[in-house]
Amino acid sequence: MEKKKVVIGMSGGVDSSVAAWLLKEQGYDVIGVTMQIWQDEENEVMEENGGCCGLSAVEDARRVAGQLGIPYYVMNFKREFKERVMDYFVDEYLRGRTPNPCIACNRYVKWESLLRRSLAIGADYIATGHYARVEQLPGGRYAVRTSVTAAKDQTYALYNLTQDQLAHTLMPVGEYTKEEIREMAEKLGLQVAHKKDSQEICFIPDHDYARFIEENAGEVPPEGNFVDREGHVLGRHRGIIHYTVGQRKGLNLSMGRPVFVTAIRPETNEVVIGDAGDVFTDRLVCGNVNWMAMDGLHGGEARVKAKIRYSHKGASCRIREREDGLVECVFDEPQRAVTPGQAVVFYQGDYVAGGGTIL
Q: Is 105 considered catalytic here?
């Protein structure tokens, strides 16, 4: 019987390297691919700071592929990455929202673009080194299931994958802990066994989001007013791209007490300031919803656990579909810093039920 062919995205890190080995052990015909997404400038700087797809990532991935005896290629996804991830990141900040570029990259680059090219060259699946599991449920739908290690679980960033993408996806690392993955890499003699994990946003290695936006936006919002909830002016801000909901540091406001960003109003160029309690809310509304384990609410309600950011532990809530098609989420207890532009991801037990973008 002919082996099933799988294209694995190799970042040069330990997780995708061991994933490639695991797939080979499971009997797949494995092809290693690194997605070239860097935009030609300062490649070395990006890589030194932990970029997942920089130049030395290619060297490390090629070396691992050689050790594993699998073919290896570099595929150019620069245009897709710029349009779908970098431009989206800038646009969202200009609209007063806080985007999640990793989710956009997963959905539109690592899956949509890579999967299309992989199927075109005869592959049956694509695979990644994410700490998550893909399973087909009894009703036939595919869903992402949390990894066996809560400490490294990456399902939050995968809620937006489609049923077709999931049907062609393998994630072998989700069955192991990070320590087990590093141990396997050591036993295999892979040089990447102790390579540090890549940083969160690969295309902003110095974490200076505002500088990146200023350099990549045609026009950035000017200085404006800090205001309280009633609209009283409290001071001047440096421009809305410098702030996010829940922020306390860097406000340079002398209020005699700790104050926080509670909202950003791009239409009036105002940043709203409040006390610690003002950062909490018991509800949110989300759009661009992608259903995964569930096929929708069909006018009803559901009890789920929701995560409002990658590091959030999740909170119990009730979700319902509004007449306008948006989904309202009401938490049992108020949550801190519900941030427009971020994802809210709904879980039923270990499975991702769906998720959307917080409005």
A: yes
Say which of 52, 53, 102, 105 is annotated catalytic.
Answer: 105
Euclidean distance between CA atoms 173 and 158, whole angstroms: 14
Q: What is the pLDDT of residue 53?
A: 55
268 burial type by CB count under 10 A (0-12 exposed, 13-18 middle, 19+ buried): exposed
Sequence-separated contacts (24+) of 27-31 with Cβ below 8 Å: 27/3, 28/3, 28/4, 28/125, 28/170, 29/3, 29/4, 29/5, 30/6, 30/68, 30/70, 31/5, 31/6, 31/7, 31/70, 31/71, 31/72, 31/73, 31/123
CB-CB contact of 32 with 73 (8 Å): yes
Nearest CA-CA partner of 284 in 252, 219, 328, 315: 328
317 annotated active-site? no
**What 3-state class would DSSP assign to 141?**
coil
| Among 53, 202, 317, 329, the one annotated catalytic | 202
Rounded CA-CA distance 290/93 in Å is 22
**Which residue from 215, 205, 210 is spatially nearest to 52, judged by alpha carbons?**
205
346 vs 202: CA distance, rounded Å: 26
307, 352 contact by CB (below 8 A): no
pLDDT 10s digits, 51-62: 455 566 899 999
Please name which of 179, 182, 161 lies closest in space to residue 171, comparing C-alpha atoms: 161
CA-based nearest residue to 241, from 341, 96, 343: 96
- pLDDT tens digits for range 19-68: 999 999 999 999 999 998 876 655 444 444 444 555 668 999 999 999 99
pTM, whole model, 2 decimals?
Answer: 0.93
